[in-house]
Design brief:
Rossmann fold; 8-stranded mixed sheet; Alpha-Beta Plaits; 17 helices; alpha+beta; single chain; 51 strands
Length: about 800
């Protein structure tokens, strides 16, 4: 029978006096309705009280509408679930798949809800927990993505890492092509991922990621995603993040033309995420419409993948794009991961309080040998959050690029078990894009990837032994309060590899290797691209190219294996080019070819044909050269006193226009350098004497006279002289040109003074010589009086 607190009866005019509930109706004598039974009364007494109140003529107020029924998680024997629901007026919504002893339920509203008798969630929990058939009962609480609750505050040292966004080169990465900034980022160097890949890649291991989903179309994740589940929509499949966006935003972010090689810049989406967007997307994207946690699951998956590139990734979407999830969906996701073969569960989220149901689920995972990891939180405090605070979960904190504890990371040797870099990590982002992400969520992803490597080497590893292995290899940071230290995957895996009989240690088969771009006996010249194909039954860890036994460059550790050889640095003749492939066990195989280097070593001939050597030059002149080569002239570059005169001329006739007035008078050196396709060069030079005129012409006004008063037509006249020649005289009135420049003597001009306003004006003349020197006549003053 339902019970309610008597205090709720006050809504109907009931009061309690000396422990007795009565209805108080003005002058009417108070009537006893029920005796107090502790702090509760039976529903029948409440109904009787209502009837008494009505009989007395009291108006019963209409209470406000009740809240939406709350959800709860019920754990009980499967064969008792329905009976419990019947006894306590519960509606069964759904069980955890494969676990019928755990149900999501709601409390039905009682028939007397309209009486204003409102029960709290705690009332319901207290009631159910007194039922001996109930194993556990709790509210369906919520959890949040760590980076949406407390935003990480980065240290300035991370600016250096963000500078890597300027690099737009691509690199081969375990069968896919990715941005090199992602594959070779500093964080992976810090935790020794390249060295760890010599021992394991995560092959055969599944890492489940309980998060916002993933971009199932991201090229870097193709071939590693395993079937997942969207618990927010109850659908099996890719658990796509895209379903949380409106269509217009999807079109912008998932543009088919998007490429990391597009002209782009880092764009800050929130405090923890900086994304590479091309200019068109950055301009059209309304960031206010982008949910705060969108992309979080893809970013976490990208960091798991960069550490464990061969591991399967199981996306379990329990979180919406706003970063929130229900306790029940998280619980379902944990059970799903364990029941569908995951070895590692990444939980980059937090809850403020512990949940007995999540504890049950994690205990279930631990009992099945599954390793669970969670973020320690970004509040920068010594505080516990869940699930990181559970006994069977590794709580992961964040460190900087300089190996210090991140200022935003929660800390405490009893609260954080391990740490990993968590500032400005380079990872994947929906829409074939990349991002820089910061926070303990992403530190956790790196460690989860490391657990994928460890599980490949030691398939029976569990939570406890994984912790010991990480501890053995961790870099200790006394005083940093990051638990057992910052992870070092090479230090963790090598002792494990030494005591196991996994394929990398037992491998005795060398790789296969082929020089794809060259055949035996071929003749080569110039810069030669070299392409090498290599494969191995376990995995190729490096390819090295050598010339005559001397390495041409550093070993390449990921496909595609491409090199460049400048044959011009090698003497003409026969040489041996070799490519050596190496696997993780140290097995090697070499392929080689003999090639003939036949580079052109003869420089072109070149002659300056104009002007003549020793010539005197003035003004603008044409410099000409002739050039020839046994193979061909690639270009001729003209220079004046060693400085390039314009761009290289790539076709005959080879000429350059030079204004000699840009240099001082005197002797100058003109040069022409001819270049052939092999880079051979030859230079010809001559000396010339620049003798430009620098004396300006002499010019004087001869008419009208100074201070003349004029009306009607007026004749303007000037005399001009120059040591070279006068090429023009320009008359000006008050500084403005009058008519066109006069180019022949006599320098005279008739002007109708009626077109000039009455008053005083200044008239002058400017003479110009062939070199552009100008002479100015002393101005004369004239007064125009046409209207008087």
């Amino acid at each position: 029978m339902n019970i309610f607190r008597c205090v709720r009866l006050r809504a109907f005019g009931f009061v309690r006096r000396a422990g007795v509930w009565i209805v108080d109706h003005g002058s009417t004598a108070p009537r006893v309705i029920c005796q107090r039974l502790g702090d509760r009364i039976l529903l029948t007494f409440a109904v009787a009280a209502l009837a008494a109140a009505t009989a007395l003529g009291q108006t019963v107020p209409t209470p406000p509408a009740g809240p939406k029924p709350s959800e709860f998680v019920l754990r009980a024997p499967a064969n008792r679930i329905e009976a419990i629901a019947s006894r306590h007026a519960l509606t069964l919504i759904r069980p955890v798949d494969g676990h019928p002893d755990v149900y999501l339920v709601t409390r039905n509203r009682p028939a007397t809800w309209g009486l204003g008798v409102i029960e709290t969630d705690q009332d319901v929990e207290n009631e159910l927990l007194t039922d001996p058939d109930v194993g556990h009962f709790e509210s369906n609480g919520s959890a949040t993505i760590a980076e949406t609750k407390e935003a990480p505050v980065l240290s300035e040292s991370t600016v250096v890492i963000l500078d890597s966004f300027a690099n737009r080169t691509l690199a081969g990465f375990f069968g896919t092509t990715v941005w090199s900034g992602y594959a070779t980022q500093p964080a992976t160097q810090i935790i020794k991922v390249p060295e760890a890949h010599q021992l394991a890649t995560g092959w055969g291991v599944v890492v489940a990621i309980i998060d916002t989903g993933v971009d199932p179309r991201h090229p870097a994740l193709q071939g590693v995603l395993v079937p997942g589940y969207d618990f927010t929509r109850d659908t099996a499949g890719p658990a796509s993040e895209w379903l949380d966006l409106n269509e217009s935003t999807v079109v912008i972010l998932d543009s088919a033309s998007a490429s990391i090689l597009d002209p782009s810049a880092p764009v800050s989406l929130n405090e923890s995420t900086v994304v590479i967007l091309d200019q068109a997307a950055a301009a059209s994207l309304d960031r206010t419409l982008l949910p705060r946690a969108f992309g979080h699951g893809t970013m976490v998956a990208g960091l798991v993948h960069v550490v464990a590139p061969a591991a399967g990734i199981m996306p379990l979407k329990a979180f919406k794009a706003d970063g929130t999830a229900s306790l029940f969906d998280i619980e379902r996701a944990i059970y799903y991961a364990v029941d569908h073969g995951a070895k590692v569960i990444n939980m980059s989220f937090s809850m403020a309080t512990a949940s007995a149901e999540i504890t049950h689920a994690i205990d279930y995972a631990s009992a099945h040998g599954v390793i669970c990891l969670a973020s320690a939180g970004n509040a920068g405090r010594s505080t516990v959050v869940f699930p990181g605070g559970y006994r069977n979960v590794m709580a992961i904190g964040s460190t900087t690029a300089t190996d210090e504890r991140s200022g935003f990371s929660n800390y405490g040797d009893h609260l954080v078990q391990f740490a990993a870099p968590g500032e400005a990590l380079i990872t994947l982002y929906p829409g074939r894009r990349y991002a820089s992400a910061s926070g303990t969520s992403f530190s956790t992803a790196l460690v989860s990837g490391g657990m994928g490597l460890l599980a490949q080497l030691e398939p029976q590893v569990d939570q406890q032994t994984a912790g010991r292995d990480l501890d053995d290899g961790a870099v200790k940071r006394p005083g940093s309060e990051i638990g057992n230290g910052r992870i070092n995957l090479d230090g963790t895996l090598r002792p494990v590899a030494a005591r196991t009989t996994t394929p990398p240690l037992a491998d005795t088969t060398p790789p296969t290797v082929t020089l794809m771009s060259l055949t035996n006996g071929v003749t080569v010249t110039g810069v030669q691209p070299l392409s090498v194909s290599a494969s191995d039954d376990v995995g190729v860890v490096g390819v090295q190219v050598a010339l005559d036994g001397v390495n041409l460059s550093a070993e390449q550790t990921s496909a595609p294996y491409g090199f460049s050889w400048d044959t011009r640095t090698t003497a003409n003749g026969v040489h041996v080019l070799s490519a050596t492939a190496r696997d993780a066990a140290g097995n090697q195989r070499t392929a080689s070819v003999a090639v003939t280097v036949a580079n052109d070593t003869t420089a072109p001939t070149v002659t300056l044909t104009s002007p003549a050597n020793g010539a005197a030059v003035t003004g603008t002149i044409t410099i000409s050269a002739s050039a020839s080569d046994d193979v061909g002239v690639a270009g001729v570059q003209f220079m004046i006193d060693g400085v390039n005169q314009g761009a290289e001329r790539t076709a005959a006739p080879y000429q350059a226009i030079w204004d000699s007035r840009t240099v001082p008078n005197g002797v100058h050196v003109l040069m022409a350098t001819a270049r052939d396709p092999s880079g051979n060069q030859r230079t010809a030079s001559i000396s010339v004497t620049v003798a430009n005129a620098t004396t300006p012409p002499i010019v004087a006004m001869t008419s009208p006279a100074d201070n003349a008063t004029v009306t009607g037509n007026v004749t303007l006249a000037a005399s001009a002289y120059d040591d070279l020649a006068v090429v023009g005289v320009q008359f000006t009135l008050d500084g403005a040109n009058l008519a066109q420049e006069l180019t022949v003597a006599p320098y005279q001009l008739t002007v109708d003074s009626a077109t000039i306003p009455d008053g005083v004006h200044v008239l002058t003349a400017i003479a110009r010589d062939p070199e552009g020197n100008q002479g100015f006549a002393e101005g004369v003053t004239l007064t125009v009086t046409n209207s008087r």
